[in-house]
Write a structure and sequence with these properties.
single chain; elongated
C-alpha cells in the first residue's frame, strides 16, 4: 500500500473519466431524441410542467455551497519541564489563561 501521499500511475488530477464522458454523451443523445419525438402540443400543462421540472436539474447546475473561511487562530504552547519549579497559583494561571 502506498503511504507516501504521492500518486503513481492512473489519471492525473483533473482528467475526466473517459467512460463517464462516453455515457453522458450517449445519454444526452438518447434524451435529446426522446424529447424531439414528444408532441408538446398534445400534452397537458401539468405534463409539460412535470417535463420541465424533471429536465431542469440536468440543464441548470446547483449552486455550490461556499464554506466561510475561518480565521487563523494563533496559540502558544508552553512546555513545562518540572512542575516543582512553579507555584500552584502560577500553574493555575497558566491553565486557565
Amino acid at each position: 500500500m502506498n503511504t507516501t501521499g504521492n500518486k503513481y500511475g492512473g489519471r492525473t488530477k483533473g482528467t475526466p473519466n473517459k467512460l463517464t464522458s462516453k455515457i453522458k454523451e450517449k445519454l444526452s443523445c438518447i434524451i435529446s431524441e426522446a424529447i424531439d419525438s414528444l408532441d408538446l402540443g398534445s400534452m397537458t400543462k401539468a405534463e409539460r410542467l412535470k417535463l420541465i421540472q424533471l429536465g431542469l436539474p440536468y440543464i441548470v447546475t446547483k449552486p455550490q455551497i461556499e464554506e466561510p473561511q475561518q480565521e487563523e487562530q494563533k496559540f502558544q504552547i508552553e512546555i513545562i519541564d518540572r512542575l516543582g519549579k512553579y507555584k500552584d497559583r502560577d500553574l493555575d494561571k497558566a491553565i486557565t489563561g
